[in-house]
Amino acid sequence: QVQLVESGGGSVQAGGSLRLSCAASGSTVSNYCMAWFRQAPGKGREGVATINSGSSAQYTPSVRGRFTVSVDNAKNTVYLQMNSLKLEETAMYYCAARSSSYCPLVAGNFGAWGQGTQVTVSS
């Protein structure tokens, strides 16, 4: 079973950028569908982006053109580059893995999760 550890969260002003990292161990990320989710206080877990073993990515519409998901197979790490951050994107961001080539942006389909990293966007 893959273990995931996120890092890179922090506080940033609206319009700023952050890059989140998700370091995997116990298995190779290239064998998985990898995803980023986020959860704001009082809200459900929202899918942000996925990337499959063929490096094909998909994004929730609200982040397209601003966020980029990528994989460094040599480092066994997945990244989420977030640009032009908005106040409403303050949330805990989670990395997740699914052992399948099918890569839906739905939290219930992912069995492995990291502990999360907090992103706070302020005005």
Provide structural commentary:
With 123 residues, the protein is mostly beta strands. Helix content is 0%, strand content 50%. The protein has no helices and 11 strands. It has strands at 3-7, 10-13, 18-25, 33-39, 45-51, 57-59, 67-72, 77-82, 91-98, 112-113, 117-122. Strands 2, 4, 5, 6, 9, 10 and 11 form a 7-stranded mixed β-sheet that branches. A 4-stranded antiparallel β-sheet has the order 1-3-8-7, with no helix packed on it. The radius of gyration is 13 Å and the shape is globular. The model has no long low-confidence stretch (mean pLDDT 95).
| Low-confidence sequence ranges | none
The sequence of SSEs as H and E is: EEEEEEEEEEE
Strand content: over 45%
Percent range of helical residues: under 10%
Helix tally? 0
Q: Span from first to last CA? A: 40 Å
Supply database-style keywords:
123 residues, mainly beta, 4-stranded antiparallel beta sheet, 11 strands, 0% helix, 50% strand
Summarize the structure.
The chain has 123 residues and is mostly beta strands. 0% of the residues lie in helices and 50% in strands. The strands form 2 sheets. Strands 2, 4, 5, 6, 9, 10 and 11 form a 7-stranded mixed β-sheet that branches. A 4-stranded antiparallel β-sheet has the order 1-3-8-7, with no helix packed on it.
Secondary-structure map:
Layout: E1 3-7, E2 10-13, E3 18-25, E4 33-39, E5 45-51, E6 57-59, E7 67-72, E8 77-82, E9 91-98, E10 112-113, E11 117-122
Parallel strand pairs: 2-11
Antiparallel strand pairs: 1-3, 3-8, 4-5, 4-9, 5-6, 7-8, 9-10, 9-11
